[in-house]
Design brief:
This protein has 192 residues and is mostly helical. It has a domain of 134 residues. It has 7 helices and 2 strands, in the order E-E-H-H-H-H-H-H-H. A two-stranded antiparallel sheet has the order 1-2.
């Protein structure tokens, strides 16, 4: 038996309305949390875009550059007892500017995809290019570490990664367009 929250009358368990006062017994279900998180993410993106405009992706990339540089310096300072640490950090510092450029490409691709419906169609392509450039830079870092440290496994890993880049590009590109198609169909359903 269920009691009515308004008048207190005893009702059957599956009652939807009170038979005495007519008030609904079932409360509306809360919206799923993923929907709220999605709205919070979009709200944050909108605030970020309004606040910094076209300079936002550049600021985010500069922030990435600063954080990665600090991490490399912390690793260099804390790894004084490891002889190879100086070689590793110097190789990472050599490839910091290309990594900055890749993050710049990715951040501006995301920015223009949010701003322009026409550009949104090309965003999976640019994201796939940025991802492949990132993997290529990682392969170059592995080659450079192989040259400095003479570890054979690094050269093998770099060669394997470079050989897999075309297949990875196609896979990431297809995955990007699948997600774009799903998001566009979801947006079309939301529009009246």
């Amino acid at each position: 038996m269920v009691n009515c929250p308004n008048c207190g009358k005893n009702l059957i368990d599956d009652a939807v309305f009170c038979t005495r006062c007519g008030s609904p017994l079932k409360t509306k279900a809360a919206s799923p949390p993923t929907h709220r998180f999605d709205q919070a993410g979009k709200s944050l993106e909108n605030w970020y875009d309004r606040r910094f405009g076209i300079l936002g992706p550049l600021l985010a990339s500069l922030l990435f550059l600063i954080i990665v540089r600090l991490v490399i310096e912390i690793v260099r300072i804390s790894g004084t007892d490891i002889l190879e640490m100086d070689d590793i950090t110097s190789v990472l510092l050599q490839y910091l500017l290309p990594l900055f450029c890749v993050t710049l490409l990715s951040n501006y691709t995301s920015y223009f995809a949010r701003r322009s419906e026409k550009f949104k169609v090309f965003s999976p392509l640019f994201h796939a290019i940025a991802f492949i450039l990132f993997l290529w830079i990682v392969a170059q870092i592995l080659y450079a570490l192989h040259d400095r440290l003479a570890v054979q496994g690094l050269a093998t890993a770099a060669t394997s990664m470079e050989n897999a880049l075309p297949g990875i590009f196609v896979f990431v590109l297809l995955l990007g367009y699948v997600f774009l198609a799903l998001n566009m169909s979801k947006e079309q359903k939301k529009k009246p």
